[in-house]
Design goal:
The protein has 10 helices and 8 strands.
Length: about 210
């Protein structure tokens, strides 16, 4: 299948952000005097919007979520961003696809400001035609809105698009937008978890994408 557009999740797919997210959630929890923070639960929620994570991990109400989001974003953008690195092979493989004229886009639950900062710091920002963060879609992952937005904005053909992600939320998002999907096993979900969602492909390292595209 000749794909012309690749739509990537960010956390756990392009970049190793697990510790930065867990660290920042812990910081917010301490600030709000929340005891017994469940790191395993937080890890299982990576990929969902912050609002959903705060509801499920900390059982916060709407007002507390607003306060928590402000604290989270400030800490993350100022401090945790420095703990993030791209996974092995990501930079070279993205540059390879870009050189072939393939459209590259990001569809993430992360805030757009943080996404842009990280991508710029890693010297890959210029490779992407579109950076989509949680502000860009009313309905968040696993809803298909952000993928549909990207396809509509650039008039991409769904049959020529591939969504790549590390969680079942990413795969469901792509499936609900009627595009092919590829799970990566090195991120936040296991291969077994991904297989249950039935993506078109599963890969163990980022550069294996070259064999698909």
């Amino acid at each position: 299948m000749a794909y012309k557009t690749l739509i990537f999740d960010f956390d756990g797919t392009l970049a190793d952000t697990q510790q930065s997210i867990i660290q920042t959630m812990g910081f917010v929890g301490e600030h709000l005097n929340i005891k017994n923070i469940d790191e395993a639960l937080i890890k299982s929620l990576i990929g969902l919007p912050l609002k959903s994570t705060f509801e499920k991990a900390f059982s916060l109400d709407e007002k507390a979520i607003q306060e928590a989001t402000i604290i989270y974003r400030k800490h993350y953008n100022d401090i945790a961003i420095d703990t993030i690195s791209l996974f092995e092979g990501v930079k070279e493989t993205l540059a390879f696809f870009h050189g072939k004229g393939i459209n590259l886009a990001v569809a993430s639950s992360k805030g757009r400001e943080a996404l842009i900062k990280i991508l710029q710091k890693q010297n890959v920002y210029e490779l992407f035609t579109f950076i989509g963060g949680e502000e860009d879609a009313k309905n968040k992952k696993p809803a298909p809105d952000i993928v549909n937005l990207i396809m509509d904005k650039f008039n991409y053909n769904p049959k020529e698009c591939l969504v790549i992600g590390d969680t079942v939320f990413d795969i469901e998002m792509g499936q609900r937008a009627f595009v092919d999907t590829c799970g990566v096993t090195y991120g936040n979900n296991t291969e077994a978890e991904l297989k249950k969602q039935k993506p078109n492909y599963i890969i163990n390292s980022f550069n294996e994408l070259k064999d698909i595209v």
